[in-house]
Structures are given as C-alpha cells and as structure tokens.
C-alpha cells in the first residue's frame, strides 16, 4: 500500500506536504470566516472571494503546464511555495494588527490564486518524475491520503484557534508550515528523478496539447465529467461555511467540525484508493459510479434536518467525492504520454478548478436566494446527471467496455497502449 514511500525523494515530498497541507486547510477555514465577519455574514462576499482565488486558474494554468514540460519542476515548486508563504504572511500581519479590510482579503485571494494556478499542474507532473510510471497510481492515492489527513486535522485546529486567538494567527501558522515543503524540495537528490527529455521551446505547444486531447475520447470524457462535477458540486469551500453560519447558526468551531467530518470521509476514501492501487488500475466504471453516488449523497446531505445528521452525512459524501477525484486523476495520468503530461495535467487542473470563478458566486447567490441548503441539492443533482450522461455516451461507444489507450501493469507485465481496458 505504501510502495511509493520507498523512494527517498517522494518521502521528502510527502512529509513536507503533510505539514504544509495542515496549514493550508487552517488558512482556508480562517479566510472563509474572516470574509464572513468582514462582510456581515454575506454569502455572496464569500463566493466573490472564492472566485477571485480561482480566477487566475483560467488565465495561467495552461501556460503553467507548458512551463512544467520545459523547465525544472522542483525549482518551479520552490518558487511557487515561497510566493504562497508570502501571501499568508501578509494577510496574517494585516489581520493581527487590526488593519485588514475586505478588499485586502480579495486582493490577496487573487495573488494567492496566481501561485495556486501554477502549483497543481507542476506538482502533478512532478509526481511521475519522483516515483516513475509504475507507481503513479499509488503515489496519487497516497497524495490524496496525506491531503485529506491534513483536512481532518487542519479545520479542527483552525476552528479552535479562531475562537482563542482570532483568524490572524492562523495565517501566520500557515506561512511557517509552508517552509516544510520548501526545505524538503531543496533536500531532494535531482539525480534520482526520472526526468523526460524536455521538448524544444517553440510556438504552438499549447495548441499541440489541445489537439492531443481532442484525439483522445477517453481523456476528453473524463475532463467533461470533471468540469461539471467540480464546478457545481465541489463547492464545499463556500457551502459549508454558509451552512454552519446561516443554516445551523454555529460559530467558527462549528464550521471547522463540518469540514473535519467531510475530511474524515475523504481520508477514508483516500485509504481505500491506496489499497485499490495495489490490485488494479482505475477504470471508467469506477469513475462514473463514484460521480453518480457522490451527486446523490451531496443532494441528500443538503436535505438533512439537523446539524448532527448533516455532519454525519458528510462522511459518506466525502468517501464518494475523493474516490471520484483520485480515479479521474489516475486515469488521466496513466492515459497521457510522459512528454505531454505537464500540459495535459494543466488542462485537467483547468477544468477541475477553472469553473470555480463561475461556481463560487453562483453558490453564494443560490444560498442568498433559496437558502443555504440549495447549493448542496442543486450541485448534487447536476453531478449525478453528468455521470449519467457520460455513462450513456460511453455505453453507445462500446457497451460497458471503452478503449483506454494507456499503459498499465497487469500481473506484473506491461500491456500495450492500444489494448482495450475493462471498465
């Protein structure tokens, strides 16, 4: 289950990520709560902050994929993480000194979003360099487990810290935890990375990636489904805060507890994904099924009558959510040739995150107009319908078997990219 950890570079990466991700989740909770406090608990303001943070993804992520294929990914990650730490430090100092106003948060959300637009495609492509093709699925699942372990711990700590010290010190803690990633990236041995030959710098490399995806219906189907599910259903960064404050009338610790319960489900789903990675490669059947189940569970969660039942329903919702996320990531990584991986993963992150500038304000508007439960119900229904539509499309292309042209390992032997994969 933990085979990727045998690689020293990946161990350094993983340990730094665990520490940093705790701080990242603490900041996310504190930032949402600070926006609510500064705006008079306006759900639209929370949606605007989320939109500004994710807007740079639309502008820079595809170009980040081109840069990832051309340049040293490790050095790029060091620069990006340094920028994230600087943003957290600036917001923390403004907050603890009492100078922060809402437009400060909006501005720093946008600047922070510029760095987060570059980070995911570079980081995702860097995983393959650290562990090699045979361990990608395992490493993706382990990354998700570490991310969601931090998601269990971070919100709970943040909720308590906000009550005791205010939001400012949470941002400062995140700035310090980011140093763990930077330090461990610097400690890696570059000679042990499995680097691919860098493509020559030339015009049209972004268009080349788009043409490549258009010729791959397997990858294109995943991207379409990811767009609809992430834009309309992966809105917990705004909906949970709205539900805690406006539906169940809880304080910051109540919001943190809801985030932790969702993370418990996500962590459970991540560990199940790690175990599955030792048995077989992920397929489209699991991808479509998990998206459909996630949509239904999210809609049901939105209908729960009490705070306790709402929180408990987030656990199975988190399991289905992370199963979908991990499967989509692994399918795309395995289906993509190494020399195109940085650009294709940038496109993947664009559709995964890029819908948030639309989805986040829409979530705030729905909550303001129809109540804090409506984003859960409507988003869940859209996710389930997207899964059904993609399932029907794939069914028409070949029953329940789709050609996934990718390399995978079965019983220790390599299978041709052109071999049909059971889904």
Automatic annotation (TrEMBL):
Keywords assigned: Cell membrane, Membrane, Transmembrane, Transmembrane helix, Transport
Compartments where located: Cell membrane
Positions of the Major facilitator superfamily (MFS) profile domain: 1-192, 219-423
TM region(s), chain numbering: 44-68, 139-163, 219-248, 254-274, 286-304, 310-332, 344-368, 374-395
Entry-linked InterPro entries: MFS_dom, MFS_trans_sf, TM_effector
GO molecular function, one term: transmembrane transporter activity
Membrane topology classification: Multi-pass membrane protein
GO terms for cellular component: plasma membrane
Xref: Gene3D superfamilies: MFS general substrate transporter like domains
Name of this protein: MFS transporter
